[in-house]
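Problem statement: downstream parser choked on a complex file, so we are re-checking the raw output for the iron/sulfur cluster run. The parser issue turned out to be on our end (a line-ending mismatch), but while we're here, posting the original submission so the record is complete.
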Amino acid sequence: MIVRGKDITGPLRESADVCIIGSGCGGGASAKILAEAGKKVILLEEGGYFTSRDFDGTEGFAYQTMYQRRAGQSTEDLSVTVLQGRCVGGSTTVNWMTSLRTPEFTLDDWRHRFGIEGLSAKDLDPYFERVERYLNVKAEPDENHNPNNRIILDGARALGYSTKANGRNARGCVRSGACGLGCPFDAKLSVALTYVPDAVKSGATVYADCRAEKIEGSGKTKRVAGYVLDNERRTTKTDFVIEAPVVIVSASAIHSPVLLLKSGVCNSSRQLGKNLTFHLTTAVAGRFERIIYPSGGIPQSAMCDEFLNKNGDNGGFWVEAVPVYPALAALAFPGFGRAHRERMREFPHTGASITLVKEIDSVGRVTVNDHGRASISYDPGPKDIEYLKQGVAAAARIHFAAGAKEVMTLHARPTIIRSEGEIERKIRAASWERNSLALFSAHPLGTCRMGNDPQNSVVDPHCQTHDVPGLFVIDGSVTPTSLGVNPQITLLGIAEKSAEWLAENFAAVAR
Amino acid sequence: MTHMDSLHAESTGRRRFLRQTLFGSAALFVAPFIPAKILRKQTARNTAPALLFFTQEEYAVMSAAAARLTGFPAGAPDSRDTIDAALRADKFLSTEDPEIQDQIHLLLTIFNSPIAALFFSFEFSRFTSMDDKAQDGYFEGWMTSSLGFRRTGFQALKRLSMSMVYTDQRSFGEIGYHGIEAPGGAR
Ligand SMILES: Cc1cc2nc3c(=O)[nH]c(=O)nc-3n(C[C@H](O)[C@H](O)[C@H](O)COP(=O)(O)OP(=O)(O)OC[C@H]3O[C@@H](n4cnc5c(N)ncnc54)[C@H](O)[C@@H]3O)c2cc1C
Ligand code: SF4
């Protein structure tokens, strides 16, 4: 059963075997596995429950209703916009569907540096296979790439860079381009269309519009308390308390540490909220004579993986296409005024690629502000900034090789590159200070990191917190480092594995 | 204390919060130098729309800022071919969280203050009284300032203005955006 906030009329008091907070990758996959194992599962989601009937393909609707902070979530200084979903299905309802396994070198790094056993490529491959089968993950055939993705495939190939089509979790995709706004055709196999309904089929109850504010108690009587929200009016309606011996926090890498910090638990390591990674992202936009129409067709179907861990330092970057909708373009395009408006008029001739850095020396952190909300800080490290510059340069080269007439970066002070020969000079001359360049993250991770040592990690390799038996964190918070690839398959694989372990060891855990 | 009491027990001290943000601490530094008379001064406007969040003065500042930033002229709210970004922002911000609302009020106050303009640009003038060229120069100063909080303030105004204009379908025709097309939207 899926219950919306508007259908909850009085204070809600319930009990269950497992209470899960957040319905994205971590929460949705855990709910399915545990409900199918016969556990009574309650799944709480602060955002609303929407279906393809609601998705109208506009940024206005999507950002207002399905994104955290109406798509305005960012670091305190506004230097990095942090995009996340806030609805049943979590970020998967609005994500761009690129489906990639965790790079082996990243998993090796976790074993060496954090003593994590049981998460090698060999251990995770069966879970990845299962997830990919369940979500029908397949690479698109050549004829399905839109002109924006062709820039990457053709440009990178011409330069001799490694490039390929990536898998996507879709069935019956009509290539509308709306993935980031909610799929109106039920073709995207998001968590809301797969794990959540399957959990419900096995008896789980989903409460949408219910925000957990605090976790209390220990042992068999843990209590999750919070508010039922009227998300349309942005007010609270009533309150709820759910009692359960096992609680899983799956509120994402930004919101899980906030909930735990507010609850005053799981921070004996002093690592809670620290180690935030972003997969730091910026973009280049090329102007082409031909029509690209960057919002049409499959948004993300190809990438260039030439530069990831190329130096063997676990860092580097990646280049992907990015769907460009008008408001997103307007925020990202440099400058202001008439020149900005002129640039917007070239929208159909604009191609855009993002470059995403697998961080090695940036420092990110989530704390709680006086209003009980997430306060995000992020200080990009010099090595990561260097990779960001190289990423912008590589993306610009790819655009020129694919026929761009000029390429602009997202610097506030417009940096327009008119030929390949200008790339290095212009990129080196530009400012890379905070708020001099539009930066994004759609992949925040790492704030309740996993490890063997309770002194420097928050959860163990089964995602159970070191401090409170029966309290788990299963979501993007647990990764010990930046991944280097888009995270959903990694997070689903880890969630399935951890939830399966929990189901098998339930009696011991729920003491 | 009950669960709910403890949920409510968070301090919401405005000054404390503002001190914790880059923009807030700068705002607290500059604000005492701005005479109350200037903060309250009304900017003339022919038709005053009913506002949910902005004061009339803030609305005038936001209108002028949005017009310069987006290149779309500020128009009467009922006009068919202009988008009143400030009026849309007013509605949007009226349901924002109090912490964001506080920061926007402060930002607009400082942004339009002649004292702040004197501090930052050696020019004693309200933003709304500057001519187009001076307004562009003033924005340029905020956008590229060596002070982080001014760049943050610029980003806040730009994001608000752009998102109000480019989520309005009336802006789509000009940029050749046709909305979501299916099946086979690939061109
Ligand atoms: C625009 C966009 C594009 C993306 N594209 C891709 C892609 O192409 N490929 C890919 O692999 N990844 C992509 N991602 C990232 C991927 O979707 C996420 O990494 C993944 O969904 C994270 O899973 P999670 O479980 O950690 O959190 P989420 O999926 O974000 O789910 C967390 C949920 O918890 C809820 N919540 C938060 N706090 C509370 C609370 N206190 N009480 C109750 N509920 C709460 C939130 O509302 C949210 O629904 C994209 C993300 C975005 C935003
Ligand atoms: S491109 Fe495919 S998966 Fe994405 S919204 Fe359109 S139909 Fe759905």
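For whoever reads this later: Residues 288 and 404 of chain A are 5 Å apart (CA to CA).
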